[in-house]
Specification:
The protein has 9 helices and 11 strands. The protein is of the alpha/beta class and about 270 residues long. The strands form 2 sheets. The chain has a 6-stranded parallel beta sheet, with helices on both faces.
């Protein structure tokens, strides 16, 4: 059985940990939980039979085979190299960290040097396989439209000094994926994953606020000279943090299950 360490103890991490016991128990076990607030790590570790680490170095001392990240973009930027050099594979849920090309190229190089692997989760969407097909063909035109409730955008860097209507539909952002991830670091991981998987260098993003909705939707359109695809996803936001989708926790479970199975779906 492979040892998993968890970095981050937010609500999505908790959903993952509790359900991982049920779905992955024959192939993995959670050995360590690490979080910015140690008391949160202690609480979650006690629920899954693991140990709470006070920092990433202590987490890595237990020799995990895989580190699963739920801690945000800054945690990936700060700890990815350390994790890979310690001999662990890295599962990244905060895909927005990979938008910066220099950082992405650097950690890919580190992973290759240490014979490790970096896995990107599908999060709130799917279809990364067909997106990679577009990347192979080349030069895709990609558009992503995400519709979320107003509270998803409140408190984001882009909305500082701006207001979000709680009564009327509002176009929050319309532009480039690279600008989107800086303005909405927890809202557009979907867009960054789509851009990277498809190889689109100029993917366009529209973010819409729609009051009263109970589910988040993502509509992705990809096209090139020989293919046209339209992907549509609807999922419930995390009630504790509406900037995230609960399905992102289950996407990590599906990834790990696929990694352990002799039968893989691409």
């Amino acid at each position: 059985m492979k040892k998993i360490a968890i970095l981050g103890c937010g609500s999505v991490s908790q959903v993952f940990c509790i359900n991982a016991l049920r779905h992955l128990g024959n192939d993995y076990f959670i050995t360590t939980v690490c979080a910015k607030h140690h008391e949160h790590a202690v609480e979650l570790a006690s629920r899954v039979g693991g140990r709470a680490a006070r920092n990433v170095s202590e987490m890595l001392e237990l020799g995990p085979d895989i580190v699963v990240e739920f801690a945000g973009i800054s945690a990936v930027e700060e700890h990815a190299q350390e994790i890979l050099e310690a001999g662990a594979d890295l599962v990244i849920s905060s895909v927005g960290a990979l938008d910066e090309k220099n950082f992405r190229d650097h950690i890919v190089k580190i992973a290759k040097q240490n014979k490790r692997h970096i896995y990107v989760t599908s999060g709130a969407i799917g279809g990364l396989d067909v997106m990679e097909t577009y990347s192979v063909i080349g030069n895709p035109a990609v558009r992503i439209e995400s519709v979320k409730p107003p509270e998803s955008y409140i408190g984001t860097p882009y909305m500082e000094g701006k207001t979000v209507s709680t009564t009327e539909e509002q176009l929050i952002f319309d532009g480039d994926v690279h600008d989107a991830i800086h303005g909405f670091p927890r809202n557009v991981n979907v867009s960054v994953a789509t851009s990277l998987a498809s190889g689109a260098t100029d993917a366009k993003v529209r973010l819409i606020s729609r009051p009263g909705i109970k589910e988040v939707t993502h509509r992705i359109t990809l096209e090139n000279d020989i293919m046209h695809s339209e992907l549509f996803f609807k999922s419930k936001p995390d009630p504790e943090n509406p900037k995230n989708s609960l399905s992102s926790a289950y996407s990590v479970i599906a990834l790990l299950k696929n990694m352990a199975s002799p039968l893989s779906f691409f």
